[in-house]
Amino acid sequence: MKILIIGGTGTIGKYLTSRFSKSGYDVFVAHRNSEEYPIDLESATSILKLFQKVGICDAIICVAGEARWADFEALTEEDFFIGLRSKLMGQVNVVKHGKDFLSDPSSSITLTTGILADHPVLQTTSAAMVNGGIHSFVKAVALELRTHCRVNVVSSGLVEDAYEKYKDYFPGHVPVSMDRIYSAYAQSVLGSSNGDVIKVY
Ligand SMILES: NC(=O)c1ccc[n+]([C@@H]2O[C@H](COP(=O)([O-])OP(=O)(O)OC[C@H]3O[C@@H](n4cnc5c(N)ncnc54)[C@H](OP(=O)(O)O)[C@@H]3O)[C@@H](O)[C@H]2O)c1
Fold it and tell me: pTM of the predicted model, to two decimals?
């Protein structure tokens, strides 16, 4: 099975890359600063170019995308557009173009959001909004693509490997183990879920 992981060098992405590779899958890693498989989620052209270079896959995972964190009062319209261009439209375009580079209807695209959609914390009006939008998008697009491919999204809490970096934003939050994170993506890639928001809180 050929799996393309966009953002495969990030905290979550590199763990998924290692686990899927160890399980014997043929993993291709793309990310913004990659020499071999560069992609910028903010550019639909760059997304299409990546799929053309990698070719037909059995699964596409996107664990990339940014949104600006700051107090609502401080966020400008342009700050909101960062999340809309990168994490929201970037992942919409991964589905729009990626669906044409999948092997058959059992193949999958798995997007990534996060707990902020349901349980926002301070300074996350943009990130929470974008995550919620992706959840609605996945439910709707899966209806239309069901004869073509499966589309799901994994929404997790703060992960173990990022806990030290972000713990002050999430007081009292129990970090999600990296093993549970892998299981959620494996459920989407290897199972039969479609249109699901797979929550790992
Ligand atoms: N960390 C958590 O606890 C957590 C929990 C829930 C959800 N999430 C979500 O999961 C996603 C990944 O989080 P992470 O903590 O693993 O992030 P990370 O460590 O910052 O890694 C981000 C990855 O995405 C790539 N990337 C960033 N912007 C890109 C762009 N515009 N185009 C293409 N690739 C881009 C980076 O590539 P370069 O290094 O080349 O820039 C890197 O490979 C994010 O959307 C985040 O909101 C994270």
Answer: 0.98
